[in-house]
Amino acid sequence: MLEANIILKDKTVFITGVAGFIGSYLALELLKRYPTIQIVGIDFITNYYDISLKEERLQKLKRNKNFIFIKGNIADKLLINKIFTEYKPNIVVNLAAQAGVRYSITNPDSYIESNLIGFYNILEACRHANPEIEHLIYASSSSVYGSNKKVPYSTDDKVDNPVSLYAATKKSNELMAHAYSKLYNIPSTGLRFFTVYGPAGRPDMAYFGFTNKLREGKNIQIFNYGNCKRDFTYIDDIVEGIIRVMQHAPERKNGEDNLPIPPYKVYNIGNNQPENLLDFVTILQEELIRANVLPSNYNFEAHKELVPMQPGDVPVTYADTTPLENDFGFKPSTSLRDGLRAFAEWYAQYYKCNK
Question: Annotated catalytic residue: which of 48, 49, 153, 166?
């Protein structure tokens, strides 16, 4: 196991996408664990999904005096430079991104702006703030594995076959981070997240969208005729993984040519246990009934459609998390049943399904 080389106590952490699903959970947990930490968060509050969820997440964060929120776009280079100059972050966690595979087919511009230009601005700001930047952590995605046939997916695998623009931007982030690590000795770690889910998550994700449709009596579409497998990863496991990784930055070293060896790492964070989509929706249905989101006599079969694979999708995601376990002694372990139960209970309360 790696020893921590960063102490989070008293640090200033800059989190982009802080009103998002992962960003808000991460900021809350850091503020809870480290009372003297300062979190500076930025979010553009786009309407990609219901902004009331983002606003509620922010309200929870704003109760803490050590949280500073800036509404803005990471594609605004002047704003990013101003934040780095004013707050001098020690650690940067870039979670801001235009998400979604299918959305990238119809709205490519937003992916270029946020995922490429925005991330470039973060890298440039880190470059000019170096060596004050102790660690840059950024969100990649299981989508980078594209049409790879070998499973489980290993970070040693080639990832040259993206099947969506979203995946291509995430792979580009890894390449850009590597170049900046090499050129400017910036310690950076990329995290390939695998299908993150949980309470107060993203409504565009399958489990949330299915729930909305079932509750409204609409049909849900299960792609690839149900022959898809996903490595669903519960939000608490994702946050625990990020916090552990934050505390060990890849070490700055020079090679034989006296030039920096890129202080650069990439890890998978997934449950290492892919679930069949049909099994997933069965468990979801059972937990929605248990939480009184759906009536006990709900006819699930009547609302289920098996349809072909959609462009940009892949049949399976499956994470090899051995490096994460070896380096940080951590492996995501929340069962799908427990995770979906927590989501269903949150959903029932948030949307007042019991009244």
Answer: 166
